[in-house]
Amino acid sequence: MFSAAVPKVKVDSSKFGKIVTNWNNVKNNSKATKKTIAPIVEQQDGVNKNNIKKLEEEIGTFTMEMRKRPFFKYETGAKESISKLAGVFEELKEFENSRDNLGENARKFGNPDLITKCVKDIEAIKQTVDNMKALWDHIETCQQAFSRFMNNKWIETQPFEMEDEVKKLQKTLKEMKVDRKANAYMGILEDLKKWLVFLPLIAELADKAMRPRHWDMVKEKVGVQFTIDDNLLLRDIYNLNLGKFQEDVEEITD
């Protein structure tokens, strides 16, 4: 077998020398340019650091002010609170845009960690909003159950089944990841507790051993006259505030 001869390539040493010279010039110019612009880079890096610090402060102020908003208060109600919570994400877009721009600059200047606090603080706000949304969804579920209970006819009331349902609602509430000092959390927890006091009392009042004379004693204690008939709703009994007369009611039913 015969191997093909490899053609010899003639190298123009003068051209190669020019390439090397040009490359060396580029490196030297690069060093010179870097040295020339160093003060400008340092200045812009400082500006970016100050802007990041300012953004941190703005996010901190926003977080504190947000804690005063209506959706943290139980009296606001589920519908309005859920609507207002959705608006927070729109407000955060400006912070997110600033975070992205300043973060990109920080990476260019070799300080990517400078934006970390802003990132974490914005995510913390989002988590708080998500938690409050979940809380208000649960509050709405609880209030729908309360409303359903209230509309039950007294003679058809099933206190033990209702008590089991309320206990499950309370268990779910206590397992939620939410600020337990929030007024909205404490408000629904208080309502659940009231039902867990009220339902055992009506279980006693619904006992077949109750006689008209016992009911007369209850009416006298609460200071309200009412008639036990098909028109009486659980709402009417709830409005008697039996929790204030718990010991008296228990004594009568015993």
Describe the model:
The structure is a single chain. The chain has 254 residues and is mostly helical. The protein has two domains: 43-151; 154-254, no CATH class. It has helices at residues 13-66, 78-108, 116-150, 159-175, 183-205, 212-222, 234-238, 246-253. The radius of gyration is 36 Å and the shape is rod-shaped. The model has no long low-confidence stretch (mean pLDDT 86).
Q: Which tags fit this structure?
A:
2 domains, mainly alpha, rod-shaped, 8 helices, 0% strand, 254 residues
Helix-strand blueprint:
Blueprint: H1 13-66, H2 78-108, H3 116-150, H4 159-175, H5 183-205, H6 212-222, H7 234-238, H8 246-253
Helix pairs in contact: 1-2, 1-3, 2-3, 3-4, 3-5, 4-5, 5-8, 6-8
Shape: rod-shaped
Instruction: Write down how many β-strands occur, each being a DSSP E stretch of 2 or more residues.
Output: 0
Mean model confidence by pLDDT = 86
Q: What oligomeric arrangement do these chains adopt?
A: single chain
| Main beta sheet | none
Query: Are there runs of 5+ residues with pLDDT below 50, and where?
Result: none
**Beta-strand content:** under 5%
- Helices, by number, come to 8
| Radius of gyration from CA coordinates | 36 Å
Along the chain, the helix and strand elements come as: HHHHHHHH
Overall number of structural domains: 2
Helix content: over 70%
Distance, first to last CA: 117 Å
Q: From the helix content, strand content and strand pairing, which structural class follows?
A: mainly alpha
